[in-house]
């Protein structure tokens, strides 16, 4: 117990605050039904991630996050909302889809099982992690963010919210990758490629969402047939 | 297993002309795709002209491999080692990609002219270029970073291509594919994180030396396997596949089913042969799932009413054949002869299926374009009006069923031989049931097409060459069975 408190005391105050900010904004972004607010919190989250990479000693990643996450991916979401380049089709406001309880329970269970496996995997290599989670609250935040994003991805039907959840899941995974492998050149290259992929995927997703809205209206964004696949 | 993938240093340095052939093979499809976006070709002949240098680059790499054996390229960029290798297997895969890619590109102008695709059609060309370039890179790359980047780019471009038809159903299916593929890529990334954290290197030859079995290797293999299985539509993660093909354009479906899903399978086998050499359970789990895939995919194809669903579901079943071979390739205590036979059969089946499936999608697309119908009942009575399209379907189906003398037959013969030698009776049963089911759904299609009484009013005439291209691909699958010694020599040369 004392060791635990000592470990807490060893935390850097700035890092603790940043980790709390990251987790908080991620949770709002994932679970707020008000879509515009969720997207603003995503932008805030990306800004906090930039700072986090800086603190972890990866200035290049901070630059990549600033450019790709904040500069390019963020606007994609506002385009999907219909706030940038407004078109004939209406802009999105709230997620009004609801799920039957049994499906929610099943999806959460599947997400938990998946995350259990990932957690066990990380636990096995914890001995040679570059940054220990006990010294770096940012990594703890990464674990929490990845877990809740996975849950949200499995839970939501609204396509925009799933796209948001994917982006946050990506950030959590990148943070875990940095924790396991350190911020070596190779790890930074992987994360940068991952950021580019996330941006391209989000752009494609945003274009699709606008197009679907135009063709079929808001209802189409929740039309996701098979719970079996969507829980993966 | 590792030497078969050519993960070692070559004896000779590549010549200067080989460098240029490599650059052309990797860059030209992309470049030509961009060019075609500026000036979309309306006829097939500019495409034919443009594909000459692409095919030439492939042939040059083939002759370079013939002369000098396996080749390696290596770059050190900011402390990250990137490397490519050229062995028999990658040459074979590269040639397959180029031939099918060229066939799909030749098919496209006629198809677009007839189907009035709308303003998005010019985007098809650059996306096709990205897919072909990244596929070529995947066959050659031997480090995890290049593989990851190429796989992701290919996946995104494939999603883009599949949704160009811009129907609402295509968009919904495409969006689901996009989200699943992206989450699959993150799973792959977590596996890579474990490898990078534990062994600290990314080049496959280096990893092959240092990896030892243990929890880290198992978890990394599980994570990477789950991510790639999702992208390769391996049963039970295949459900996104059929809806995506349902409303996609014909050349896009042909490319996707023939090549894109195979790339993930290729990476999966390559990485597992490093991470899980002689593992007992993991390849067997894949094989059991493969048996279910054969039965389930066959049943889906048999019960469906839609022509495209039939062709797409048959992909699920045919991928099952490849999954069934995993224990022979990766498992412990397999006699060298069985393993060699299984290795040959695996790649021959993969290549034969690629050609046959591309031909089948094109033939089905021709039928749908000409009749304006997309159901099996809709093509009733086409035997009189479109004998050539039906012939192509038939020839392609012979390969899928594994009747002699097609590539499917030779591949299954090799696989059966390997399975009998290692006494894998379940796998043999799965192979036979699969062939029967394939025959069932193919003959169901033919029964409809020979209805004489069906009234049909109007047939849209096809552009010249559309049937011919499909026929060429189907005959190529056929010829690969008769001339199997050519691909097999390349496969054997992988480590000689």
Automatic annotation (TrEMBL), chain A:
Keywords: Membrane, Transmembrane, Transmembrane helix. The chain crosses the membrane at residues 13-31, 38-56, 62-84, 104-126, 138-156, 163-183, 189-209. This is Uncharacterized protein. It comes from Vreelandella subterranea.
Automatic annotation (TrEMBL), chain B:
Residues 141-438 form the NADH:quinone oxidoreductase/Mrp antiporter transmembrane domain. The keyword Cytoplasm does not apply. The keyword Transmembrane helix applies. It is found in: Endomembrane system; Membrane. It comes from the Bacteria. One of its GO terms (cellular component) is endomembrane system. Keywords: Membrane, Transmembrane, Transmembrane helix, Ubiquinone. Its main location: membrane. This is NADH:ubiquinone oxidoreductase subunit 5 (Chain L)/Multisubunit Na+/H+ antiporter, MnhA subunit. It comes from Vreelandella subterranea. The lineage of its organism: Bacteria, Pseudomonadati, Pseudomonadota, Gammaproteobacteria, Oceanospirillales.
């Amino acid at each position: 117990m004392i060791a635990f408190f000592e470990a807490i005391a060893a935390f850097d105050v700035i890092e603790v605050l940043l980790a709390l900010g990251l987790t908080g904004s991620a949770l709002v972004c994932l679970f707020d039904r008000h879509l515009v607010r969720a997207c603003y919190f995503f932008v805030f989250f990306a800004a906090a991630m930039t700072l986090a990479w800086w603190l972890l000693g990866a200035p290049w990643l901070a630059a990549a996050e600033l450019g790709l996450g904040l500069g390019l991916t963020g606007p994609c979401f506002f385009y999907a909302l219909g706030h940038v380049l407004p078109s004939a089709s209406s802009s999105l406001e709230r997620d009004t889809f609801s799920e039957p309880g049994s499906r929610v329970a099943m999806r959460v269970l599947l997400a938990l099982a998946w995350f259990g496996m990932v957690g066990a995997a990380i636990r096995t290599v914890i001995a040679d992690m570059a940054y220990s989670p006990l010294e770096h609250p940012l990594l703890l935040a990464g674990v929490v963010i990845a877990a809740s994003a996975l849950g949200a991805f499995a839970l939501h039907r609204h396509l925009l919210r799933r796209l948001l959840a994917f982006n946050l899941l990506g950030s959590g995974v990148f943070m875990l990758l940095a924790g396991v492998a350190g911020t070596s050149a190779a790890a930074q290259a992987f994360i940068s490629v991952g950021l580019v992929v996330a941006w391209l995927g989000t752009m494609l997703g945003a274009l699709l969402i606008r197009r679907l809205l135009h063709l079929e209206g808001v209802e189409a964004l929740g039309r996701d047939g098979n719970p079996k696949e969507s829980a993966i | 297993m590792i030497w078969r993938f050519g993960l070692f240093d070559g004896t000779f340095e590549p010549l200067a002309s080989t460098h240029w052939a490599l650059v052309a093979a990797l860059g030209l499809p992309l470049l030509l795709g961009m060019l075609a976006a500026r000036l979309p070709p309306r006829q097939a002949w500019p495409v034919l002209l443009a594909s000459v240098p692409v095919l030439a680059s492939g042939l040059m790499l083939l002759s370079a491999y013939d002369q000098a054996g396996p080749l390696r390229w290596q770059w050190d960029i900011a402390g990250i080692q990137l490397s490519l290798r050229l062995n028999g297997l990658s040459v074979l895969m590269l040639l397959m990609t180029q031939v099918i890619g060229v066939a799909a590109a030749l098919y496209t102008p006629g198809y677009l002219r007839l189907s009035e695709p709308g303003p998005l059609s010019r985007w098809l060309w650059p996306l096709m270029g990205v897919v072909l370039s990244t596929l070529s890179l995947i066959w050659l790359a031997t480090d995890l970073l290049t593989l990851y980047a190429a796989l992701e780019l290919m996946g995104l471009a494939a999603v883009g291509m599949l949704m160009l038809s811009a129907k609402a159903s295509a968009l919904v299916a495409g969006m689901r594919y996009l989200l699943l593929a992206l989450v699959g890529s993150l799973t792959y990334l977590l596996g890579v994180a474990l490898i990078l954290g534990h062994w600290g290197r990314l080049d496959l030859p280096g990893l092959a030396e240092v990896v030892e079995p243990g929890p880290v290797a198992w978890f990394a293999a599980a994570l990477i396997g789950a991510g790639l299985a999702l992208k390769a539509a391996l049963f039970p993660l295949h459900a996104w596949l059929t809806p995506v093909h349902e409303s996609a354009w014909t050349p896009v479906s042909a490319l996707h089913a023939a090549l894109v899903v195979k790339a993930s399978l290729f990476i999966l086998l390559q990485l597992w042969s490093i991470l899980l050499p002689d593992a007992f359970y993991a390849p067997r789990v894949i094989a059991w799932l493969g048996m279910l895939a054969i039965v389930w995919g066959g049943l889906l194809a048999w019960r469906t009413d839609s022509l495209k669903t039939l062709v797409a579901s048959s992909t699920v079943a045919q991928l099952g054949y490849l999954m069934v071979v995993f224990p022979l390739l990766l498992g412990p205590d397999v006699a060298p002869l069985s393993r060699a036979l299984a290795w040959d059969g695996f790649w021959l089946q993969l290549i034969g299926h690629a050609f046959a499936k591309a031909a089948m999608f094109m033939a089905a697309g021709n039928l749908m374009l000409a009749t304006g119908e997309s159901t099996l009942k809709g093509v009733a009575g086409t035997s009189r009006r479109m004998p050539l399209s039906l012939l192509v379907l038939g020839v392609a189906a012979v390969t899928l069923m594994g009747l002699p003398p097609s590539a499917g037959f030779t591949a299954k013969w090799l696989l059966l031989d390997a399975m009998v030698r290692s006494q894998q009776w379940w796998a043999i049963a799965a192979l036979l049931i699969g062939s029967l089911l394939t025959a069932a759904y193919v003959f169901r299609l033919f029964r409809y097409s020979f209805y004489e009484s069906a009234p049909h009013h109007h047939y849209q005439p096809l552009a010249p060459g559309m049937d011919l291209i499909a026929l060429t691909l189907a005959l190529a699958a056929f010829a690969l069975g008769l001339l199997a010694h050519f691909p097999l020599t390349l496969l054997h040369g992988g480590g000689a």
